[in-house]
Amino acid sequence: MAKPILMDFYADWCGPCRMQGPILDEIKAAFEGKAEIKKINVDKENELASKYGVFVVPTLILEKDGKELNKWMGVTSKEELTAALDAALK
After folding, report:
1. Where are the domains of the chain?
2. Which of the following CATH numbers is that of domain 5-89: 3.30.300.20, 3.40.50.720, 3.40.30.10, 3.30.70.2470?
3. Which residue is catalytic, options 11, 14, 48, 69?
4. Residue 27's beta-bridge partner residues?
5. Which stretches within the chain are classed as H helix?
6. Residue 20 pLDDT > 70
């Protein structure tokens, strides 16, 4: 079974993205080996951002087996992301 992937679409110039970063660092540590956390810079990966319909940063997308499970725009809490990852692992 494929691991869930949490994609963080961000930009270096984005203040809310800098607030989201430490939250994702904690989640990455908590889900080590169970889920993949990918940071995607929209300024460098604009084709990928377009593919996923990302127009706001930060945008977080949770995907499993190529299917989008959740999408959040703006800073998202550790609790909300953890709950979604836990559900994706069941």
Report:
1. 5-89
2. 3.40.30.10
3. 14
4. none
5. 15-30, 46-51, 78-89
6. yes
pLDDT tens, position by position, 54-81: 999 999 999 999 999 999 999 999 999 9
Radius of gyration of the chain (CA): 12
Q: Is 17 a catalytic residue?
A: yes
pLDDT at 1: 66
**Which of 6, 7, 17, 84 does the annotation list as catalytic?**
17
Asked if residues 73 and 56 have their Cβ atoms less than 8 Å apart, the reply is: yes
14 is catalytic: yes
Percent of the chain with pLDDT strictly greater than 90:
97
Sign of CA dihedral 80, 86, 14, 29: positive
**Residue closest to 64 by CA, chosen among 30, 40, 36, 33:** 36
Average of pLDDT values for 39-62?
96
